[in-house]
Specification:
The chain is of the alpha/beta class. Helices cover 36% and strands 18% of the residues. It contains seven helices and six strands; from the N terminus they run E-H-H-E-H-E-H-H-H-E-H-E-E.
């Protein structure tokens, strides 16, 4: 018996397209993001799932609802699956953050695990809540396939934690909008990454 987690990043938003930090800001999917979610829903329509979980932020929840619709299942929201809280950086581009918070940005790039973003979180806090939330899902569904829709930072920290990575290097994991990754858990301590950042369901124009 195992729990197979189909781990999905939400579709694109306008802020994604503008390379703005989103964090806890509740930004909706763009028309392109909706199309990305529909493309992934078509890909997963033939699979059998026992449950759908999502971050409670709109961009993730709307993606999850599109994925769940063909299966007739509700989406359970978990605040633990939210993106990292970027505090005062939310809504800003990297260039804008560099202009106003150069020292803090440099510290965060070097040591995100223990650097607190002004008004926001450390990556260690994100890792604790995300892994805690997903562990509860794995233990609740010890045998079956479950969809979990969340955010790029969440996916990087979860996959990095399962692989035993130094999470200060988590930015090395590329995670596209509406991508699919799969984690197989025979137990929480025996998680295996079987697919990562797969976007084969998307056309070139949707990437």
């Amino acid at each position: 018996m195992s729990c197979r987690i189909y781990l999905v990043r939400h579709g694109e938003t306008i802020w994604n397209a503008q390379f703005r930090f989103q964090g806890h800001s509740d930004i909706a999917l763009s028309p392109r993001g909706l199309e990305q979610a529909r493309a992934l829903a078509a890909r997963l329509s033939g699979e059998s799932f026992t449950a759908f979980y999502s971050s409670d932020l709109q961009r993730a929840l709307d993606t999850a609802r599109i994925l769940a619709e063909p299966h007739g299942l509700p989406v359970v929201t978990l605040k633990a699956l939210r993106e990292i809280n970027f505090g005062v950086w939310e809504g800003l581009t990297v260039a804008e953050i560099q202009n106003s918070y150069a020292r803090e940005l440099q510290e965060w790039w070097q040591n995100p695990l223990h650097t607190r973003i002004p008004g926001g979180e450390t990556l260690a806090e994100v890792a604790d809540r995300v892994t805690g939330g997903v562990r509860e899902i794995v233990e609740r569904h010890s045998d079956g396939q479950v969809v979990v829709v969340c955010h790029g930072g969440c996916i990087r920290t979860l996959v990095g934690s399962v692989l035993g990575m130094d999470l200060n290097q988590y930015w090395r994991l590329g995670v596209n909008n509406a991508c699919l990754s799969i984690l197989e858990f025979y137990s929480w301590e025996k998680g295996i990454l079987t697919l990562f950042n797969d976007c084969s369901h998307l056309e070139k124009g949707e990437l």
